[in-house]
Automatic annotation (TrEMBL):
Coiled coil: none annotated. Residues 23-144, 150-276, 285-335, 347-404 form the Mind bomb SH3 repeat domain. GO terms for molecular function: ubiquitin-protein transferase activity; zinc ion binding. GO terms for biological process: abscisic acid-activated signaling pathway; defense response; late endosome to vacuole transport; negative regulation of abscisic acid-activated signaling pathway; protein ubiquitination. The keyword Metal-binding applies. Keywords: Metal-binding, Repeat, Transferase, Ubl conjugation pathway, Zinc, Zinc-finger. GO terms for cellular component: early endosome; trans-Golgi network. InterPro entries: KEG, SH3_15. It comes from Nymphaea colorata (pocket water lily). This is Mind bomb SH3 repeat domain-containing protein.
Length: 413
C-alpha cells in the first residue's frame, strides 16, 4: 500500500485492512443513478437530481448528510451516493435546461438568466447575483448548471482552426499558449464575454473570444521539458542546447514564459511554452542506480571526481530535489539534483559480465584478466562496487567499478 509521506510501500494483510468510503466532509453528493426507487437509507422521497453535502463521516460506513431542501440531517450508506462537482463562489451559472420552476420560484429571474455565484452555504444553498435583480438570489444547486468559462490562471491555446481572431494576430499564431489574466463582459446581462490572455513575448494582454481558445495542461516548476522537433528556431534561441536536451523548468512568468534551470554562473535559458513538450521520466527512488545525464554539462554542485560514465547508487533524497549518491570510488556521498541524473540497470548477483572494450585500464587494474575474460557477479556493495568471479580463476575475487563493466550478452540476459 502506498502511504502518504512514505517513500517505501507498506505491507499489510488483506484481513487487516478495510475499504474506506472515499468521501470527506464537504463533498457534494447525489443518489447513484444505478440505485432503484429506494436507497438503502430513506432519502424521504428526495429526487435523484437533488444535491446534498457530507456533514460527517462516521466509521460505520454511513454518511451524515445536510441539504438546503430539508431541515435537519440524515444518514445514508456511502454505496448509495456518488460525488458531484460542487459549485463555488465566482462561477457563472444558468438554470438547468428543462426545469419547469426553481425550488423557490422564479422571483423575477428568467429561464435564460445568467448569473455569478456570490455565496455557498454549508448545506449547499447557493446565492446568485443576477443582473437587474436586487440582492442575492437564493437557489437550490440542483436547479443550476455551470456555464463553462475560462478562469484566471488557466493555461489556454489559440485553436488551430481560428482564421482571424477578434483582436488580430499580432505576433501570435494558431497554437500559441498563454495564461488567462482576466474576464470582461461587454453587456450587462453577462452574455457577451471577452477573455484577456497574457502571451509570451506580447507587451499587452491579448483580448479574444472564448470560442477562439481551448484549455491546455499547465506546465509546472520542476517539470522536465524539451523543444519540439517541429520548432526550427526557439523564440529566445538555443543557448547551447539542442532537440535532445531535456531541461527543468525553474520559474514561470505571468505570461507563461519558461525559465530553465541553469548551473551557477550560466545564463538562464528562456522558452515559449508553445515550443516545448513535457518529458515523462521514471521516478527515482532510494536504491536506484543512476548516472549523470549526457545533456548535463555542469552539475549544480560540480563534478568532483564523477564523470558522465560514473555509475552510483542513490542513498538519500530531499523534497527540494537534492540527492546523495554513493560511488564506489568516493569515500563520501556525492550530492546533485535529481533531475541531473537518469536511472540505469542495476547489476545483480548472478549477472554474467565482462570488461567494456572502451576501458583502457579498469579502476583497480587488470590483475590477471583481459578483455576476453568472462565472469559472474557474486557480490554487490551498497556503493555499487562489484565482486566478480572470473572463469578459471581461483583465489581472491576481482573488484570492479560498474562503469567499467557490461553484461556479457553472449551468455546471459
Amino acid at each position: 500500500v502506498k502511504v502518504a509521506g512514505r517513500r517505501s510501500l507498506w505491507k499489510v494483510a488483506p484481513g487487516d485492512a478495510e475499504r474506506l468510503s472515499g468521501f470527506e466532509v464537504g463533498d457534494w453528493v447525489k443518489l447513484r443513478s444505478s440505485i432503484g426507487t429506494r436507497p438503502g437509507y430513506d432519502w424521504h422521497s428526495v429526487s435523484k437530481e437533488s444535491y446534498a453535502v457530507v456533514h460527517s463521516v462516521p466509521d460505520s460506513g454511513y454518511l451524515e448528510l445536510a441539504s438546503c431542501f430539508r431541515k435537519g440531517r440524515w444518514m445514508t450508506h456511502y454505496m448509495d451516493v456518488e460525488k458531484v462537482p460542487c459549485l463555488k463562489v465566482g462561477q457563472h451559472v444558468k438554470f438547468r435546461s428543462g426545469i419547469s420552476e426553481p425550488r423557490w420560484g422564479w422571483r423575477d429571474a428568467r429561464p435564460d438568466s445568467r448569473g455569478i455565484i456570490v455565496g455557498v452555504g454549508a448545506d449547499g444553498e447557493v446565492k446568485v447575483f443576477f443582473p437587474g435583480l436586487a440582492g442575492p438570489w437564493r437557489a437550490d444547486p440542483a436547479d443550476l448548471e455551470r456555464v463553462e468559462l475560462f478562469e484566471v490562471g488557466e493555461w489556454v491555446r489559440i485553436k488551430e482552426d481560428v482564421l482571424e481572431p477578434k483582436s488580430g494576430w499580432k505576433s501570435l499564431r494558431p497554437g500559441s499558449i498563454g495564461i488567462v489574466q482576466g474576464i470582461a463582459y461587454e453587456t450587462a446581462d453577462l452574455t457577451s464575454v471577452n477573455v484577456h490572455v497574457g502571451f509570451c513575448g506580447e507587451q499587452e494582454r491579448w483580448v479574444g473570444l472564448p470560442c477562439e481558445l481551448e484549455r491546455v495542461d499547465a506546465l509546472k516548476i520542476g517539470q522536465r521539458v524539451r523543444v519540439k522537433q517541429c520548432i526550427k528556431q526557439p523564440r529566445f534561441g538555443w543557448s547551447g542546447r539542442n532537440y535532445s536536451s531535456v531541461e527543468t523548468v525553474s520559474a514561470i512568468d505571468a505570461d507563461g514564459k519558461l525559465r530553465i534551470h541553469a548551473p551557477a554562473g550560466s545564463k538562464m535559458w528562456m522558452l515559449d511554452p508553445a515550443e516545448v513538450e513535457g518529458v515523462e521520466e521514471e521516478e527515482l527512488c532510494i536504491g536506484d542506480w543512476v548516472r549523470v545525464k549526457a545533456s548535463v554539462s555542469s552539475p549544480t554542485y560540480h563534478w568532483g571526481e564523477v564523470t558522465h560514465e560514473s555509475i552510483g547508487v542513490i542513498h538519500r533524497m530531499e523534497d527540494d530535489g537534492d540527492m546523495w549518491v554513493a560511488f564506489c570510488f568516493l569515500e563520501r556521498l556525492w550530492i546533485c539534483k535529481s533531475w541531473e541524473t537518469e536511472k540505469v540497470r542495476a547489476f545483480k548477483v548472478g549477472d554474467k559480465v565482462k570488461v567494456k572494450s572502451s576501458v583502457v585500464t579498469p579502476r583497480w587494474g587488470w590483475g590477471m584478466e583481459t578483455y576476453a575474460s568472462r565472469g559472474e557477479i557474486v557480490g554487490v556493495d551498497a556503493n555499487g562496487k562489484l565482486h566478480i568471479k572470473f572463469q578459471w580463476r581461483e583465489g581472491r575475487l576481482w573488484m570492479g567499478d560498474p562503469a567499467d563493466i557490461e553484461l556479457d550478452q553472449g551468455t546471459g540476459p
